[in-house]
Hints:
By secondary structure, this protein is mostly helical. It is 42% helix and 8% strand. It contains three helices and two strands, in the order αββαα. Strands 1-2 form a two-stranded antiparallel ribbon. The termini are far apart.
Amino acid sequence: MKNTSIKSLSVAAALMGAxxxxxxxAPVEAVAAxxxxxxxxxxxxxxxxxxxxxxxxxxxxxTVDYDGGEWKLATAADCEAKxxxxxAFDGVNEKAKx
Length: 98
């Protein structure tokens, strides 16, 4: 009986962990659902992920303010207001600088 109890407890713990992780991830997905990748609006070190050129693959590794190859999540309206684009572009977003 002891083995059965341990197995049941292990299965229950694994299920609770999976449900907990799903609940923790749900708010992030809900927040990101209305966001787009907006290129050219992030300052150096404030990008959200990899860049167009492939020189890095992590958030926070951009080295140039408002680089058209770097993106940050934003609403479509905010992206447009800051002069960003939803596709990568060469150069720097001059509108965001000013």
